[in-house]
Every structure is written in C-alpha cells, then in structure tokens.
Amino acid sequence: MLRVLANGVCLATLMLAPPLAWAAEAEQCRAVRMAEPGWNDLAFTTGIAGVLLEALGYETKSDVLGINVIYEGMKNKDLDAFLGYWDPAGVTYFEPYKKDGSIENVRLNLTGAKFTFAVPTYVWEAGVKDFSDLHKFADKFGKKMYGIEPGSNKLMMDAIADPSLGLDGWQVVESSEAGMLSEVGYEIKEKHFIVFLGWAPHPMNTMYDIKYLTGGDKFYGPNFGAATVTTQVRKGYLQECPNVGQFLKNLTFDVDLENVGIGYLINDGMQPKEAALKAITLNKGRLDAWLADVTTFDGKPGLAAVKEKLGL
After folding, report:
1. CATH code at position 212
2. What is the DSSP string of 114-137?
3. What is the spatial distance between Cα 21 and Cα 68, in angstroms, rounded to a whole number?
4. Is there a single domain that holds both residue 219 and residue 293?
5. Which of 82, 229, 255, 281 could form a disulfide with 110 if both were Cys (CB 3.0 to 4.6 A apart)?
6. What's the pTM?
7. What does each of the 312 residues of the chain score in pLDDT, given as a tens digit?
8. Where among 225, 259, 294 does a domain terminate?
C-alpha cells in the first residue's frame, strides 16, 4: 500500500511539475559565423538573422567576402552559414561544393525574385511589353538601354547582338546601380522612354511604377529571370548546432519585405542591423514563424526572450 501511495505521489508530482527546459546549445555553437558578398538584399537578410540570434544569446559575425571565398570558408569550417545562394546566378559557384558535399542546403528563404529588362509603366502601356517591341520605339529610346557597373551587363549586350531582336546600333549605358536609378528617376519625371536592368527584391519596385518585359527567357531565363535564394551551411552544422539549425530552417523572407528593407539601406543610409531591427519591429508578427521551436542559447523559450530583449 505504501508503495502504491508513494508511486501515486511521484506521479502526481511529475504531473504538476513544469515542463522540462530545452537543453542549452553546445558552447562551440555560441558564435555563429556568417558572410555575405556585399549585396544589399543579403546585407539586410543577414542583418535580420544577426539581430535575432543575438537576442537569443548567441554571438554573431558577418563578413563581406567574395562568393568563392565564402564557399571556401564554409568548406574549411571557418564560416557556418550563408543566406545568399541565388539560383540560377550562383549555380556555377556552388557546383563543386555540391559535388563534394562540403556545403548543404537548408531551405529556400526567398521565392519570386526576378532579373531582366524593365520600363516605366507608361512605356509598357504605350506598347513596349516584350523584348521584341523595343526596336519599334528605337527613336524614343535613343537606341539606349541602361545597365549597372561595367562587367555586369553582358546579357544586355547579348540581347543587342541577337539579330532576331533588331537592336543593331543600340548601346548599353554603363555606370552603377545608383547612376542607373538616378537616370531612371529623371526620365520618369520627364515622362521619357527608358529601358533598364530591373530586379526584385529592390526598392526600385516601390520607388517607381515599373513593369518587367517578357521575351527575355533566352538571356535571363523564364518568368522574368525568376530566381530563388537558399540558405546554406557547412557540412554537419545542423547536427552540431540544432537550435541554430532550427532557426535557419524557419527563416524565410518575401520580396515585399526585402524591397522595403533594402530601401532602409540605400535610401535611409542605415546599417544592416539597424535596418533589420526596424523591419522586425514593424513586422513582429513574423516572429512566431521565425522562432517556432527555437530556444535561447541557454535553453529558454526563444520567442518570449526575443520580444523582451528587443522591447516588442
């Protein structure tokens, strides 16, 4: 009888006891080493990861490195995570590491990205809806299309060289991202015709009323140069640091969020973590999904800790 009673007391005690806390992450996981290639979209998304991980009690570092250096760093275990594998633009860079298994994909963190020719909406409405329409309005365009930095406009030049498009005599005006967009802003203000290299995510999509042209599949790929972005880690990292791994599995973005967030960097001059904190504060409803089943470094509920740390 005493044994039964004792067992009952033990059972009742267990039932009344609070749930066991999650185990803390291993000490070698405290420092999360990331990198990005200096692109505004990745500066912003890596900034979000950094702000949230630090609020969870981790230490983060993000270096600006060339893509090939990032991949070598991950292969050699000098870096842990990279939020910026653009497919198809980055396929050539990633292929060797995919083959040897030294870098692993975690998940798609962005869909709906695009990269191709764009025009102001009033130009599109005037009849320039496809690459094949450009030659019909050559005089209005001054036989010019606007690109970014020299060396980054090869596909534009390939389009001009393609006899099927009738763009003989056209030229690519090369300057910089900022220079191109300054020209776009001026031409739109004056209601002139202009065709330029457009992409999303980018604040140009909210700053200007623009449309993307069809017909560029041969150069930029289908669906307006559609691209995805994937989070990657060094081999074995998800198993070594499962809590950070769960966070990275949860972390996704969308084009609208990034259009606005990149604007904080470009237009407002914010630093990446400053821009990230503003975006998180204005989109705190996303925290439920980003922090599902994630704890602090020392094993406490992650969502509550982040809200308290960030004053949300």
Report:
1. 3.40.190.100
2. EEEEEEEHHHHHTT--BGGGGGGG
3. 40
4. no
5. 229
6. 0.81
7. 333 333 443 434 434 444 444 567 899 999 999 999 988 999 999 999 999 999 999 999 999 999 999 999 999 999 999 999 999 888 889 999 999 999 999 999 999 999 999 999 999 999 999 999 999 999 999 999 999 988 889 999 999 999 999 999 999 999 988 899 999 999 999 999 999 999 999 999 999 999 999 999 999 999 999 999 999 999 999 999 999 999 999 999 999 999 999 999 999 999 999 999 999 999 999 999 999 999 999 999 999 999 999 999
8. 225
